[in-house]
Amino acid sequence: MLVRSLSLAIALLAAASAAALGQTRDDAIATPVLRANVTVSGDLVRIGDVIDNAGPSAGIAIYRAPDLGMTGTLPVDRVLTALRAHQVIGVDTRDLREISVTRLARTLEGKDIELAVARALERRNGLGDAANLGLTFDRDAGDVRLDAANSGALHPASVRYDARNGRFDVTLEISNDGGAAPVKLRFAGTVIETVEAAVLARGVERNEVLKASDVVIERRPKAEVGNDAARRDRAVGMQARRQLRAGQALRLADLAKPDLVQRDQSVTLTYQAAGLYLTIRGKALESGTEGDVVNVLNLQSKRTISGVVTGRGQVSITVATPRLPDTSDATSAIGAAPVAVAAANANTPVSPKAE
């Protein structure tokens, strides 16, 4: 009985050992399978990149990877030849004729590089905000591709700027996830500070009033415009003090309020006081905008009088006396005929005379 039990135990142990050994052998000889699409992050393509179940040969390099961010193709027969050279055989090709290999990369766009350089120069040696800096690079700052491991932010490692000639030399640094040395990118060129300026779309003559279609917005060098650059909303509706050419950036000194009264223009003279309002036609002897004092010829009396421009074609006459005006004041101020004054006074109520 004891012998039978011992024999049964030995048989069970042997069966278990055989099953474990068979499983190990199956794992060891699992069929390598070719991949149709391969993605690598380094500059080499390894056996473990192109096939599954590569085993101990996975780390062996067999090809150089495509350029950063690029995709290439490999014929399957060439791949199999490279694998056989390293004793990798029996590969399941899944009837593929070629495989594609893509190298991962990080792309830095030119606009991001320009912004990083502008931020490095911001407020340095008298420069303004980064948004107002115009950069010209010695070499094209186009898109730059880096190894995918370089995932850090762009940081200025060194910055040099010469305010005398506007030259800059900036080195940007990008850290590496793998612990390798940071990548450094160097850019040189010139920088100027710009401002938004109202620019003439056409030439205008002296005293011409600017319309909305006459003015556009452009960025111009601050040194060209100066500190009195006119904004578009301040330029439209204003009058040119002098002849201005197309493409010229407008300054506040170039503009004035539009003349509401033109020389030799027919105007309305008004005189108003308590209980009295007189109007008469006149001829402006000079131009003026709102608030200007101009000389006007009274067409009825042929006298020259002064008044303040109050509106388009409107001139108000005032007297230099603080007391309430009477008929003689009005007549003297506006030079009106007595009949006009009498007409105004006819509207003033008269108390009955006591008997």
Automatic annotation (TrEMBL):
Residues 195-256 form the SAF domain. GO terms for biological process: bacterial-type flagellum assembly. Residues 1-20 form the signal peptide. Keywords: Cell projection, Cilium, Flagellum, Periplasm, Signal. The keyword Calcium does not apply. One of its GO terms (cellular component) is periplasmic space. It is found in: Periplasm. This is Flagellar basal body P-ring formation protein FlgA. It comes from Bradyrhizobium sediminis.
